[in-house]
Design brief:
Length: about 230
């Protein structure tokens, strides 16, 4: 009886061990499946975020180009004024570019979805912090900067000048002054153009800084998704 009890006890222990091992294996498989699903969701979100950032980067590059063109056109007009060069039709293009008419509104569709569903889905701590900083601070700071200086300068200075001094206007094509000789003698307009140059220079720096940040995050995303 004692031998039978021992054999039964060993058998029972063996059964329990097998059950525990089976449970642990099942849990491990379940965790592996859950982790695989989460990684799939993370990669999908990062791919969507990458598309948004590429669009933002394209917008930034376009803005930098327009700012450089605007800066150059203001410098051309000022050069003609400073050197008493007579009006010619080629100036009409530069008059049409005295203001860059840029506006940067970041595409943040995927980021907002990530915030709602939990941005912790992004497992890379450094990448997660950089994305949050870009969308929550840097993009918003730039937008405030743009509204404070670029938009106000247009409303208060550039637009009244165009309405007062030009007979026609077509952006990136032509703007004809009513009276060129009268325009070049107006010191206020010269001040407006010089201030526009300063704004363009500052915004080129600001947009270039955003470009660097966006490109850096894109590089990290490419590493995460294996591109």
């Amino acid at each position: 009886m004692e031998n039978k009890s021992r054999k039964y006890f060993k058998y029972a222990i063996g059964e329990i061990v097998l059950v525990v091992i089976g449970i642990l294996i099942a849990l491990s498989i379940n965790n592996w499946n859950e982790n695989r699903k989460m990684k799939f969701k993370e990669i999908k979100s990062l791919n969507e975020l990458r598309k948004d950032l590429v669009q933002n980067l394209n917008d930034i590059n376009g803005n930098i180009s327009d700012l450089q063109i605007c800066k150059n056109s203001n410098e051309v007009i000022i050069y003609h004024i400073d050197n008493n060069i007579a009006y010619n039709d080629s100036l009409d293009y530069h008059f049409s570019m005295l203001y860059p008419y840029i506006s940067f509104i970041a595409n943040q569709t995927t980021y907002e979805t990530l915030k709602q569903n939990g941005i912790d889905l992004i497992s890379n701590d450094s990448l997660r912090r950089l994305i949050s900083d870009l969308y929550s601070y840097q993009f918003k700071a730039y937008q405030t900067f743009e509204n404070t200086y670029m938009v106000n300068h247009y409303i208060n200075n550039v637009n009244p000048m165009f309405i007062s001094e030009f007979t026609s206007f077509e952006y990136k094509s032509s703007a004809k002054p009513k009276n060129y000789n009268q325009f070049v003698l107006n010191s206020e307009y010269l001040q407006i153009m010089n201030f526009t140059i300063d704004i363009c220079e500052n915004f080129i720096v600001s947009q270039s800084n955003l470009k660097t940040e966006v490109q850096g995050i894109l590089n990290l995303i490419d590493k995460e998704i294996g591109q």
